[in-house]
Every structure is written in structure tokens, then in C-alpha cells.
Specification:
Elements (H helix, E strand, L loop, with lengths): L18 E11 L1 H5 L8 H17 L1 E2 L8 E2 L7 E4 L3 E8 L4 H20 L1 H6 L13 E15 L6 E4 L1 H10 L7 E4 L6 H6 L2 E6 L8 E6 H5 L3 H7 E2 L1
Parallel strand pairs: 6-8
Antiparallel strand pairs: 1-5, 1-6, 2-3, 4-5, 6-7, 8-10, 9-10, 9-11
Helix pairs in contact: 2-3
Length: 238
């Protein structure tokens, strides 16, 4: 993942036209504690690279070595923007309106592959302990996804760009909204409830997202049903 920084944080006069987008943000829970260990500079890049290699496989296709049977994953599509966030990353994909059906068909498999990685994250850690012999490796990964419009901001210098949009902020909020679930996606992609049920998901309403109105989201059905009733009542509506 190539990251470059412009000399000055100054943008061109106008933002780009709105583009339909899918946004993924993930966070490595406990990264600050991990980073506070002695001699961490010997290990931090190895760990991050192993995590990003998994996301590259989920995005581009390839061998999912963290899953039982090590299946081959089908590719999703190349992001137009990706950014390291210090303890996680942001990915943005854009698409045209006429591509809605194609994107929705691919997205459900992408969603499944992301959830499988989240659910098998400890299995992934087992594969890297010989290389990174530290106890306080982040033990959980949190994932938030959203869809909507994004706007491109071009820097005045260097030819680099950033993206802004409601869905980026929403994805950021969703990854940290309910840590007991640690995987949530906005339902704005437009799947029917019956289609989601076929894939093991359900729709619920998140009612206390900081700075946002109530939002219909997609969660794994069995994980939601296993939640403590107090957490359900505090954070969600059906």
C-alpha cells in the first residue's frame, strides 16, 4: 500500500462530482498496547504486512490460508483509494449506477469473505506466532462497511487525492459501534431481507451511532441473537 503525503494540506477549489461507493474500514483492537511493547520496531511491520496480505487476498482473490481447507477466494475489485490509518485501514471502491447489479452480486461474496476473516482472526494469529513471538498481539479485528456517495478532493500540489463522504464516516462509526459483534455493514447497498437471510445475515436498526440518526445495518444473524439482551436493548431495534 503506497502512501504519499503532499507538501501542504491545501485542496483545489472544487470537490469532484459525487460517485457511488463502497467503503471498508477496519481497526485492530488493542493496537496501542501492542505498539507499547519493548523492541516493537522489530515486529510491527511484520504484523501489519501479514494483516494487509490477508486483505489483499480478500480483495484480489487467492488462497485463504486462515480458513480450514484453505479455499481459493474469488476477487472483488480494485479499490480506487486505500489509506493506512495507524491501527487499521480505509478502502474505497467506486462504481457507476449501471453497475449496481454486478456490484451487488460481487459484494455479498466480499461481505462473506470479510466476515470469515473476522470470525477466524485467531486462527490467522496462530499462523504468525512463530514469526512474531509476542503475547500482546491485537486479538480482535473490527470491520465496518457502508455504501453511498463520495467526493474526491485533489490536493493543490503533488497530484494526490483524498475522499470524503457520509458513508466514510458511517463505516468508521460502525466498526466500533458494538464491539461484541465487531462486524457491521450499512444496509444501503439494497439487499432484501430474504436474500440476506439466505446468507446468514439479518437487518437491525442501530439507534445510538454517535453523530448519526438511526441506521439500518446488516449483521450476522446468529451473532446478533447471541448478544446479551441488555446490549440489544441499548444499541439496537428490530
Amino acid at each position: 500500500m503506497k502512501i504519499s503525503t503532499p507538501k501542504n494540506i491545501m485542496f483545489q477549489k472544487e470537490a469532484g462530482a459525487p460517485e457511488g461507493a463502497i467503503v471498508l474500514i477496519f481497526d485492530l483492537e488493542g493496537f496501542s498496547k501492542f505498539f507499547g511493547q519493548a523492541d516493537i520496531h522489530y515486529h510491527v511491520t511484520k504484523f501489519l504486512n501479514r494483516v494487509f496480505e490477508c486483505f489483499e487476498t480478500i480483495i484480489n482473490g487467492g488462497n485463504a490460508h486462515w480458513l480450514k481447507g484453505k479455499p481459493e477466494l474469488q476477487p472483488f475489485q480494485q479499490p480506487i483509494h486505500q489509506k493506512f490509518l495507524g491501527d487499521g485501514a480505509l478502502y474505497v471502491w467506486t462504481y457507476k449506477k449501471q453497475e449496481d447489479d454486478e456490484v451487488k452480486e460481487k459484494y455479498i461474496h466480499f461481505l462473506n469473505n470479510l466476515w470469515d476473516f473476522k470470525a477466524n482472526y485467531l486462527r490467522f494469529l496462530d499462523t504468525i506466532y512463530d514469526e512474531i513471538p509476542l503475547f500482546d498481539i491485537p486479538k480482535r479485528i473490527r470491520v465496518g462497511l457502508a455504501s453511498g456517495s463520495v467526493y474526491k478532493l485533489d490536493y493543490s500540489e503533488e497530484g494526490e487525492s483524498e475522499y470524503i463522504g457520509y458513508c466514510i464516516n458511517l463505516a468508521s462509526r460502525l466498526q466500533g459501534y458494538c464491539r461484541e459483534l465487531s462486524f457491521m455493514a450499512s444496509a444501503r447497498i439494497g439487499y432484501t431481507s430474504s436474500f440476506l437471510e439466505e446468507h446468514g445475515y439479518t437487518k437491525v436498526v442501530a439507534k445510538k451511532i454517535a453523530g448519526f440518526p438511526k441506521e439500518i445495518i446488516i449483521v450476522k444473524k446468529h451473532e446478533y441473537e447471541a448478544l446479551d439482551e441488555q446490549i440489544k436493548n441499548e444499541l439496537f431495534e428490530l
